[in-house]
């Protein structure tokens, strides 16, 4: 086995969200993966088994449990596979596939022309988007209380948007707030967020604001052991789908996350309607921070 710690969705070679990546050369049971993820201690660790040149089995673990999909760990995993030469390319975009608990998803790895296996960025297909319930009334009040904000702070100027449960692989409550200042000043009650997340059967909250036509987000998932993440692929993919479906954004957008954590990260989201099917892709850049020795 070989592996590394990477930062995904970096912004000008800074920020980004840490993920562990382990390339497996033998079968590893779930309990052993969980122990390794707990030891690494990052929000998610991806375990990758190469099936052939184009197909990879990938599973994802937080320090507490397995999750069906993870955007930033996917970006990290396939960036790493390109850098170490498991996926080869030169001045081209290669398409490969990851087999996950939400299905078989396409990955695009763009290599630049500097030298072989020099990866520019990775773009991942997400699961088919599903938009569930809007949360109003007492639910909206509870959401505001758990974020320590006024319920009137929830919403968007010029658009009728309510907190909504959405999934492109993992279910989150997407919560609009009326300004970037409100977003960055949130002081969450993590115990309340955990209780509400378990009650609503979601991973956590993805809170967003629009400021000067730019998207800014924060993500809280204490129910799976993550107080706050500075970059999340699946949540931002779900957000991109929701805003695109409501006519608020175009089909391509850049999202800044982690600003309040001093870990500014940049997530690229692309949404297309292909034969009446919504295709959501999330991408970004990565950096290798250190190797993992097991």
Annotation keywords:
18-stranded mixed beta sheet; 18 strands; 21% helix
Describe this structure in words.
The chain contains 6 helices and 18 strands. The chain has helices at residues 30-40, 71-83, 138-147, 180-184, 190-200, 233-245; strands spanning 2-8, 17-23, 44-50, 55-61, 66-67, 92-100, 103-111, 119-125, 130-134, 164-167, 171-176, 204-211, 214-221, 226-229, 252-257, 265-274, 277-284, 286-292. The chain has an 18-stranded mixed beta sheet that branches. Helix 3 packs antiparallel against helix 5 (190-200). It is globular.
Main beta sheet strand tally, sense and closure: 18 strands, mixed
Strand content: 35-45%
| Uncertain parts | none
> Given the C-alpha coordinates, what overall shape results?
globular
Secondary-structure-derived class: alpha+beta
Rg estimate, integer Å: 18 Å
Helix content: 10-25%
Instruction: Write down how many β-strands occur, each being a DSSP E stretch of 2 or more residues.
Output: 18
Number of helices: 6
Distance between the termini: 7 Å
What string, H for helix and E for strand, traces the elements in order? EEHEEEHEEEEHEEHHEEEHEEEE
Mean pLDDT: 93
Provide a short characterization of the protein structure.
With 294 residues, this protein is α+β, with helices and mostly antiparallel strands. The chain has helices spanning 30-40, 71-83, 138-147, 180-184, 190-200, 233-245; strands at residues 2-8, 17-23, 44-50, 55-61, 66-67, 92-100, 103-111, 119-125, 130-134, 164-167, 171-176, 204-211, 214-221, 226-229, 252-257, 265-274, 277-284, 286-292.
């Amino acid at each position: 086995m070989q592996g590394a710690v990477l930062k995904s969705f970096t912004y000008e070679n800074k920020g980004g969200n840490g993920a562990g990546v382990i390339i497996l050369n033998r079968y590893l049971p779930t309990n052993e993966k969980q122990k390794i993820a707990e030891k690494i201690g990052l929000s998610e660790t991806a375990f990758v088994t190469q099936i052939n040149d184009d197909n990879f089995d990938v599973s994802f673990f937080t320090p507490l449990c397995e999750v069906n999909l993870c955007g930033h760990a996917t970006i990290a995993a396939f960036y790493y596979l390109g850098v170490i030469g498991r996926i080869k390319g030169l001045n081209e975009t290669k398409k490969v596939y990851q087999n996950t608990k939400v299905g078989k998803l396409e990955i695009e790895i763009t290599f630049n022309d500097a030298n072989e296996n020099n990866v520019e960025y990775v773009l991942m297909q997400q699961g088919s988007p599903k938009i569930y319930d809007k949360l109003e009334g007492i639910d909206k009040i509870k959401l505001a209380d758990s974020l320590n904000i006024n319920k009137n702070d929830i919403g968007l100027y010029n658009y009728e948007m309510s907190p909504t449960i959405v999934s492109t692989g993992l279910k989150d409550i997407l919560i609009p707030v009326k300004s970037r200042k409100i977003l960055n000043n949130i002081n969450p009650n993590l115990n309340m967020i955990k209780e509400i997340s378990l009650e609503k059967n979601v991973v956590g909250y993805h809170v967003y604001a629009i400021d000067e036509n730019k998207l800014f987000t924060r993500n809280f998932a204490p129910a799976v052991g993550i107080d706050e993440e500075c970059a999340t692929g699946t949540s931002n993919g779900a957000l991109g789908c929701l805003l695109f479906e409501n006519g608020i954004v175009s089909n391509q957008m850049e999202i800044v996350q982690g600003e309040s954590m001093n870990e500014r990260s940049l997530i690229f989201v692309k949404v297309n309607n292909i034969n009446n099917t919504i295709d959501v892709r999330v991408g970004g850049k990565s950096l290798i921070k250190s190797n993992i020795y097991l």
